[in-house]
Amino acid sequence: MPFGDKSPVASGKVNLAPVLAEAIDIAREAGALLGDLFSKPRDIGYKGKIDLVTDADRAAEDLILGRLARAFPDHAFLAEESSGGRVSRPDPMPRYLWLVDPLDGTTNYAHGLPIYAVSIGLLVEGVPALGVVYDPSRDELFHGGVGLGAYLNDRPVRVSAEADLERSILATGFPYDLRVSVDNNLAHFTRFSYATQAIRRLGSAALDLCYVACGRLDGFWELKLHPWDTAAAAAFIPEAGGRVSDYAGGPFDVFGRQAVASNGALHEPILRVISADEP
Ligand code: IPD
Ligand code: CA
Ligand code: CA
């Protein structure tokens, strides 16, 4: 679905619905590819001591970037495997910037644990505008965007109603540098373990965020995330009634490397645990 010079996208009168439809189609195709490769022998490489990459990450990214570039030739792209590790905010910020994680949950995937997803988000002028997260193992597609709603397999989703942190279930994750950095989330993990009903570490931040949007989780926090982990779901969590911010409760920035997402009611209680001085 290429957009010519006179299209609504190119002219600035953005109609995001057809853009989202194309992203959904691309995420489904990439997810099907990941699903096909899942049970086959994997070619696994190491980007760091515990940071993996597989041939499936690369194949899915090639597919996604090829299709996005054909559909939106005037847009910019930042995708994990071709990013060269670049995670800083582009300057100048392109009007349209796609953020692509071809396989969020690579460690799970490489171990044959079927919790992983394709995550494709679009920033418009630096702000998450729409996103798609597709989980091929469960055939669950989350999508939505600003003014477009939030959906799981085309049904509208809503965050949970839980307002008591002690009864909440939250998720988090740990950065790949946890062995060498004290800023590794272990202190927060301990604190939240005492403050909540349960904590989960599923291994896919994109899915964690979608699970907040649809009420399976009441909240999520994580640091040192990458923009491609969060851009898609951040676009539609508010549409589901939730809230996304940085650790201080300020505006969420996909390049900021701190994410708190919640059903809204638990946002301040979660921020208070994060900002407490001692576990
Ligand atoms: C990782 C997952 C994980 C999170 C890490 C991410 P990857 O993404 O989202 O849940 O804890 O911070 O880097 O490496 O599987 O794409
Ligand atoms: Ca990721
Ligand atoms: Ca990834």
From TrEMBL:
PROSITE patterns reported for this sequence: IMP_1
UniProt entry keywords in alphabetical sequence: Hydrolase, Magnesium, Metal-binding
Residues annotated to bind Mg(2+): E80, D101, L103, D104, D229
Enzyme Commission number(s) of this protein: 3.1.3.25
Pfam families: Inositol_P
Family per similarity comment: Belongs to the inositol monophosphatase superfamily.
PANTHER family in the cross-refs: INOSITOL MONOPHOSPHATASE (PTHR20854), INOSITOL-1-MONOPHOSPHATASE-RELATED (PTHR20854:SF4)
Protein's name according to its UniProt entry: Inositol-1-monophosphatase
Gene source species: Candidatus Coatesbacteria bacterium RBG_13_66_14
Lineage, highest ranks first: Bacteria, Candidatus Coatesiibacteriota
